[in-house]
Amino acid sequence: MAHVPPRKLAHVVYRTHRFEEMLDWYAAVFGARVQHQDAALAFLTYDDEHHRFAFANLDVLKPDDAGRAEQGLLGVDHVAYSYDSVDELLDAYEDLKTRGILPYWCVHHGITVSMYYRDPDGNQMEFQVDRFPSAEQTAGYMTGPAFAANPVGVEYDPEDWLARRRSGVSAAEFLDLADGQPMSPIRGVLGA
User: Fold this and answer.
1) Please, are residues 124 and 157 in contact by the beta-carbon 8 Å criterion?
2) pLDDT attached to residue 68
3) How many domains in the chain?
4) CA pair distance 168, 171, nearest whole angstrom
5) 128 within a domain of the structure (yes/no)
6) Contact 18, 3 (CB under 8 A)
7) Residue 117 belongs to some domain of the structure
């Protein structure tokens, strides 16, 4: 199997104790606009991507650590890269698995289907596939009630998805997530 690299850089996620200041700064510097914001998370974009930046508010998510600037706690959480299809994402998973490289978290975020990996230094990266074919559809989902109810998503088992794909389940079925179906909250935030 030939290795399939991602097609583009998608977004960067930051952990911060200066949530509002960070949102203001990225709005001023990039002209970024908020796609979704709650007390714990914010997703911003400045172009046609559904989000280029996400911010995790540590004052809400880890209140016991408020005011501490531990190395590894503040700053970049992960960098995300996009694939063109679920098939490419699963093919990359299979290829990396043969090399002993496995994701630590697989989640359907509602807007993306994602696999999270750590490099040898522990840097985290997300490999993702967009759920919707257009930026307008994604923005509509991000500003709607389903995303507001659970902006993190639901976990999935990539081995189950591979078996289902081999049995004839189409890639489109993996992307579909019934908007009326409640998305169960999952452990941690952003794979933590």
Assistant:
1) no
2) 56
3) 1
4) 9
5) yes
6) no
7) yes
Look up tokens 């794909």; give the residue: 165
Q: Is 182 contained in some domain?
A: no
Confidence at residue 103, expressed as pLDDT on a 0 to 100 scale: 96
Rg (CA), the chain: 17
Structure tokens at 53: 């930046």
- Residue in the structure block whose two tokens are 């990225």: 26
57 vs 84: CA distance, rounded Å: 30
Instruction: Tell me: pLDDT of 49 over 60.
Output: yes
Which position has the token pair 């697989």?
106
**Position 72: which residue type?**
G
Give the residue-averaged pLDDT of 80-90: 93
Separation of alpha carbons 59 and 40, rounded Å? 8
CA-to-CA separations, 133 to 103, 126, 147, in angstroms, rounded = 25, 19, 17
Please give the helix or strand (H or E) that residue 137 lies within, else none. Answer: helix 135-142
Comparing CA positions, the residue from 85, 90, 83 lying closest to residue 164 is 90
Q: Which two tokens stand for residue 149?
A: 């109810």
Identify residue 15 by its one-letter amino acid code.
Answer: R
Q: How far is 176 from 137, CA to CA, in rounded Å? A: 13
Look up the domain containing 112 and give its range.
8-175
DSSP per-residue string spanning 45-64: ESSSSS-SEEEEEHHHHSGG
Per the DSSP assignment, residues forming a β-bridge with 145 are none
pLDDT of residue 63: 75
Handedness of CA 27, 33, 37, 42 (dihedral sign): negative
